[in-house]
Amino acid sequence: MPFTTLKREKKYQAHVFDVAKIHVRLPDGRERSYDLVEHGDSVTILPIDSDGNIYFVTQHRVGANGDLLELPAGVINENEEPIKCAQRELREEIGMDAHKIQPLGNFYLAPGYTDEYMYVFLASGLFSAPLAPDDDEFLDVVKIPTTEVLRKAFAGEFQDGKTLAALLLALPVINGNAVLEA
Question: Exposed, middle or buried by CB within 10 Å (0-12, 13-18, 19+), for 131?
């Protein structure tokens, strides 16, 4: 017998997410409630230029109580396709667009407590095309050679989970085993 959702109640509504109480019947017939952070799906983009540099941003994160070095990312707007969101976020966060944006993979960010689903894209053939950033974003763009990115990842210099997952999905590109087309 599978898990069966019996009832879903919104308990809290915030600016970026809601919290719901999910009542389920367990496979053994017992009932249990779980709290779920309901968050819009999102994207992470790995922008790489023709010289082999990957673009990151530093951004203050309340949950980390500090600044994190991470790949550009953002929440998908209502009725927006993930690839269009990736293109928009790229322009807002690093001031560039890409001739080619290709999917690398997708995953649940933290399925133990949230329904947020992440789409990861590789952006190549970069060119200047800035859009104004969100009014609460204060970002610094950091360009790191691919030869340095993996060293930093394994040295624990990236503390952001979505960045680490995206780097893993892009490993063939970072290692030079994949051909990039402009």
Answer: middle
Q: Are residues 52 and 12 in the same domain?
A: no
Tens digits of residue pLDDT in 128-161: 998 877 777 788 999 999 989 999 999 999 999 9
Residue 68 and residue 33 share a domain: no
Question: Do both 28 and 84 map to the same domain?
Answer: no
**Tokens 């085993």 identify what position?**
177
How many Cα atoms occupy the beta-carbon half-sphere of 71 within 13 Å? 29
Q: Which of 28, 25, 31, 33 is nearest to 9 (CA)?
A: 33
- Number of residues written out for the chain: 182
> What's the predicted TM-score (pTM) here?
0.90
Same domain, 118 and 34: no
Domain containing residue 122: 40-174
